[in-house]
Design brief:
Shape: globular
Number of domains: 3
Oligomer: single chain
CATH topology of the largest domain: D-amino Acid Aminotransferase, Chain A, domain 1
Distance between the termini: 24 Å
Structural class: alpha+beta
Order of helices and strands: EHEEEEEHEHHEHEEHEEEEHEEHH
Largest sheet: 5 strands, antiparallel
Number of strands: 16
């Protein structure tokens, strides 16, 4: 296969491993800086250009689109789709996962366990929103945040109210969520590829830090997840239409709760914690679903 990898930094562990895995299986793969790809929207002749070079004859595209460039990255990915190139994750599915509010609404409709979550645009309702999720302490999240950035713990009604009012005063959209104390600053990252969880690790925040993200100094270790957690992760991925994603879950008194889905999950922590060849499994998924010469399907809207 001829594969395009959309990534701004080709030197990241995840991107290097994906390229290694593809080449080890005899595929051709090229990395393109997403922001340097130009889109030519012409009737019946959709095309993409990279530094004046036409990007054509690709069988598959692997989108590793950072949250800060979601809008442009999805525009580029849609153009690949219109050209009939098979995406590891479709643009519509990535868009659903990046909009945290929409993501939770879709998961809730399917009956997937979630922390109690509230949303309002009125700072005068700060106390009401805090009460809706069970009272302080509460977790306050930026809708556009990633890697634990923009996630604040409001430990008291007064502090939580102040944070909410400050964010809303700055015209920033936020979610207010129930704080799951019994999780003890840990969560589960389950990596779903296709219809199964291929690897899972437990992430633990450093002392004094309630966030467990590895980018915030958290530690990851291999964990055995329950059949219920496995089924929930797969159902969550299917609900958003993601072929490959990281599903972050908390273990609560009432069972597993999904926090969010990451459509471009980092694989370094997972591979080192579990020993699973995650990058290779991603390429194997493309081999099964986008075989050479059989990927020129009509782009979806």
């Amino acid at each position: 296969m001829k594969i395009a990898l959309l990534a701004r930094n080709p030197h990241l562990y995840s991107h290097q491993r994906i390229c290694e895995a593809a080449r080890a299986r005899g595929h051709e793969i090229e990395v393109f800086n997403t922001l340097r790809v130009s889109i030519n929207i012409t009737s019946r002749r959709p095309m993409l250009y990279y530094r004046k070079r036409r990007l054509e004859d690709f069988d598959a595209v692997i989108p590793r689109i950072g949250a800060s460039i979601t809008f442009y990255g999805l525009a580029v990915l849609r153009q690949f789709e219109v050209m009939g190139v098979y995406p590891l994750n479709e643009s519509v599915a990535i868009g659903r996962s990046r909009d945290k509010l929409r993501c939770l609404q879709l998961l809730a409709r399917r009956g997937i366990g979630l922390p109690v979550t509230a949303y309002t645009n009125d700072p005068k309702q700060a106390e009401d929103v805090i009460d809706l999720v069970g009272g302080a302490p509460v977790v306050i999240k930026l809708l556009e945040g990633t890697q634990g950035i923009g996630v604040v713990l409001g430990e008291t009604m007064k502090s939580a109210k102040s944070v909410i009012e400050a964010f809303q005063g700055a015209k920033v959209n936020i979610l207010v969520q129930q704080f799951i104390e019994e999780a003890h600053s840990t969560d589960i990252r389950a990596l779903v590829i296709g219809e199964r969880v291929v690897a899972a690790m437990q992430r633990r925040g450093p002392p004094g830090e309630f966030r467990s993200n590895l980018h915030r100094g958290g530690l990851g270790e291999k964990v055995r997840i329950t059949p219920q957690e496995r089924a929930m992760a797969v159902k969550a991925a299917r609900t958003l239409g993601l072929n490959v994603c990281g599903v972050d879950m908390l273990r609560s008194k009432t069972g597993p709760l999904v926090m969010e889905l990451n459509s471009s999950p980092g694989i370094e922590g997972l591979e080192k914690a579990t020993g699973v060849d995650v990058a290779g499994l991603m390429i194997e998924f493309l081999e099964r679903n986008a075989p050479h010469g059989n990927t020129r399907t009509k782009g979806k809207g």
